[in-house]
Every structure is written in C-alpha cells, then in structure tokens.
Amino acid sequence: MSRNIVQINNRFIQDENQRRRYLDEERRKRNRFMGWVLILVMLLFILPAYNLYQSYETLLNRRAQYAQLQKKYEKLGEDKEYQSDIATKLKDDSYAAKYARAKYSFSKEGEYIYTTPDLLPQ
Predict the structure, then answer these.
(1) Is the Cα dihedral 53, 43, 45, 32 positive or negative?
(2) Cβ contact 88:80 at 8 Å
(3) List of E strands, the chain
(4) pTM
(5) CA angle, 43 as apex, 38 and 48 as ends, to 5°?
(6) DSSP 3-state helix, strand, coil percentages of the chain (rounded to 5)?
(7) How far is 32 from 8, CA to CA, in rounded Å?
(8) For this UniProt entry, which segments traverse the membrane (predicted)?
(9) How many C-beta atoms surround the C-beta of residue 4 within 10 A?
(10) How many Cβ atoms sit within 10 Å of the Cβ of residue 96?
(11) What is the DSSP letter of 92?
C-alpha cells in the first residue's frame, strides 16, 4: 500500500516555512561569524606561540654557545698558566739551556743528539 502525503499550502504553512528559512539563515550567519572569530583567535594564539618557539630556539643556541665559550675560556686559562710557568722557568739559564737542547736539538761541541719524541717538552 502506498500512501500519498499531500502538504497543505495555506498562509500559516507559508509563514512557518518563511520563519524557518529566516532562522536557518540567521543560524548560518551566526555560525559563519563564530567561525571567523575562531580563526582570528587561533591566529592570535599561533603568532605568539611561534615567537615563543623562536625565542626558545635562540635560548638553546646561546646556551650551547655559552658552554663552548666556557670550555674555550678554561683551555685558554690552562694555556696561559702553562705559558707563564714556562716563562718563569726560562728565566733560569740552566733550564733555558736544557730546553733549547731538547726542543731545538742544539748541542755542545762534540756532542751527538738522539731525539726521543716522548721525552720532548711540549
């Protein structure tokens, strides 16, 4: 059995359909407005988050650079201490003669030099 449904097309039905279309259009406008507001809010949160991420990357790079510079500073301090130690030792004539003979292979008259690399001063 098939039933045929007939819709009454009177003034009340037309007014209700028009009111429903108006409400649907208002709902679509409100949803579109809320969508734009949501996109704007997302952009307002994304931009500072991106800047925060860049600042964090810069901070990590500077920390790595600081650690590198600190190691270099310590090495330079050790080198300075070594150089000042050598400078004070070279003021002694007997040590300067031994150092020159060992480092630069200087010899006295009639003396033969055999170098041993492990024993040379740095």
Answers:
(1) negative
(2) no
(3) none
(4) 0.50
(5) 135
(6) 75, 0, 25
(7) 34
(8) 33-53
(9) 4
(10) 12
(11) S
